[in-house]
Specification:
The complex is a heterodimer of chains A (about 325) and B (about 500). Chain A is mainly alpha-helical. Chain A contains 13 helices and no strands. With about 500 residues, chain B is of the alpha+beta class. In chain B, strands 4-14-7 form a three-stranded antiparallel sheet, covered by helices on one side. In chain B, strands 11-8-12 form a three-stranded antiparallel sheet. In chain B, strands 1-2 form a two-stranded antiparallel sheet. Classes of the chains: A mainly alpha (about 325), B alpha+beta (about 500). The interface between A and B is large, with 35 and 37 residues.
Amino acid sequence: MTTEKPVGSKQKAREKLKEFWKNRVLFFMLLPGLIYLIINNYLPLYGLTIAFRKINFKTGIFSSPFIDPLWKNFQFLFKTKDAWVMTRNTILYNVAFIILGTILSVFFALMINEITKNHFKKFYQTAILLPNLISYVVVSYLVYAFLSTKTGFINNTILPLLGADPKSWYANPDYWPVIITIVNSWKTAGYASVVYLAAIVGIDTDYYEAADLDGANRIQQIWHITFPLILPTIITLTLLAIGRIFYSDFGLFYQVPMNSGVLYPTTQTIDTYVYRGLMQLGDIGMSSAAGFYQSIVGFVLILAANTVVRKFSKENALF
Amino acid sequence: MLKKIISLTLVIGLTLSLLTACSSKDTTSKSESESAAASETSPDAKGEPKELVVAFITGSNLTDLTKVQDEINKITLEKINATVTLKQFTWANYSDQFNLILASSAEQLDLLPVFSSSYSNYVATGKLQDISISIENYGQGIVSQVGPEFMKAGQIEGKQFGVPAIMGWPTSTAFVMRKDILEQVGADLKTVKSFNDMTPILEKIQAIDPNVAPLVPGATAMLDAYRSFDPLGDRYGVLADYGQNMNVVNLYETQEYADLVKTMYQWNQAGYIMADAEINKEAQGTLIKNGAGYGMIRSGSPGAAESETMATGFEMVQANVVAPLATTSAVGGVQWGVPINSQDADLSVQLLNLMYSDEKVANLLAWGIEGTHYVKKADGTIGYPEGLTADTSPYMPNIAWEMGNQFITYVWEGNTADYNEQLKAFNKAATVSKAMGFIWDPTNVTTEITAVNNVYNQYAPALEAGAVNPDKTLPEFIQALKDAGIDKIIVEKQNQLNAWAQANGMK
């Protein structure tokens, strides 16, 4: 029996090679994407060492000395009071965005799915996706048109209608969690809803017919058929979002509040803190340390979340 | 068949579009504010091209850049056996692009303008070459124009890494207002010597139209141009009293700052300052041009009013309220350095020497070709030739101050012919801070500086625009600064200043 093992493994290898050769065209099509992934995502990983060095441009990255102590470039992320405010802001906003974003996107996808006229369906899809394509610089001026103290739409039209006094929107940090969440939902709900819509469309209509025969109404059908079948998609998108929980959309938190200092307590995130703190210093080691910190946390969180999901439903986990 | 042709064409088209990204980054955006780089190529046995980067502020695009470049090359070929390639950058992204070029030493770059805020960082990270010897051998023209005392502004630990661009150096603060509005209310700026003197004038101006505030903000904090102190690089820890003592103090704890922000608050409450000033992103000139206000606070060197007249389209006059002060940051406001990308520092310094001492080269860079881009006028200034305006001129970078030696260039109309003489006198008359030549190294306190930067951005724009009540917010600001570690920065700065003073035989 011991003589069969080497033959067995060789045979397996040969079979795999045959499989590969049979599908060589498919693997070939994989190549550009793979090369791009390696060059763009894996090769630059060596740059992670920048976070631990004192970079000297004359000698290059690898000859630059290691900084002492090794974690010196990371200190600025933790040492001050501001540092905790920004971390709290980043996490809380992202949690709110994930929850609210998922609910809204699924809701929109379901609604669009209910529309029968193709014409209108396409119109709403485009309309909902459009905000996602507008740059945040433009969005910040749109918001300014609403919230400007003297000339804004809200202060001049809406509030007088409701009988309230004009407010100085950019001078009070308390309003901004709501404002930012609204702006973010407006901008990004469309993108995910298109993904969910694709998943919904992929559901076999036989299920719905069977449900009709059983006498289920529309709401029951949605709850018992649509939801469970798009759950994998929801889980995938949520897991990916969790991986980015320490990142924030720079445009959203820097441009939309018009870089107003008064609003920092509720609009400062890790990315804006690093940008504002290091713009002048130009310290590449410190900014690399910030990026390193964000990605390590995201990585750990994705692994943890994936393990949790795997415990509940193995087929829904990412890996 | 048709389908095959269409799909084949699409495939080819998409593949080609992938390759467009491979084109070099040398193509420039022709929009506002571009910088030019000049490179030299020696056609002899060396055959090395060198580049010089000059940052321009310009509202027009420089379509005739190559023509001007050719003219310059005629001179440089003859004098130093090299040619020049000018490279433009925009104000929006010059900093990023510089960093990219410096990081990849493969791309050629020979002369680079460095602003004082990044200067010590560039030197500390090895981005600039030590040109002390090159200056000694080939840069005597530069030294005689700049003056040995001011060459110090480019020295770190005795080594020369950059050369200050010559311009009106000292800082001074001024109110620059529309002349017609002043005449309308019967006010005269000549009586204004301080912020408080302005209050009655602002009141009268505000009465004209309650919806338009007299003062407009710029894109930075409103008191950013205020300099009765030596900022020692970054304003965190300054020498008060025009730098005449050597005690580093916290600017934001001084009585002077408290009084200033209180005045701004009173002005804001009375409606003398534009609404939402603290989040403004527009330039002061643009705001006045569009009627959002009538005046501004800005740096007050000679010609400030004339430059704003050009920017706003209204005639502007100025009143200086702070005496002129020469500091390292001011003198080293823009410095020319040789980056590590350069293969031949000696030749680069030779070109720099030409820029500083050769009138023809300086004028070509600053104003273009005589006859094509400008003509000499009777009063000794120069102006547009027939048929050209600010919008149509193919070469009007309008950054004479940046190109090296402004004093050997012609004076553009709008200023009096003796503008350069006025500037020279202004330079001479300024108080010189005792810390002239001191550039401090922040590497030991980078954590604190990061935190303090954020605190500054959080409080200063609002305080200085008078948008928040200083009685409540100024103590908060000071406390936040302390929490962020400004005292540590001040101690570090004081130690470095003392060491520098001793090394230079002062005190």
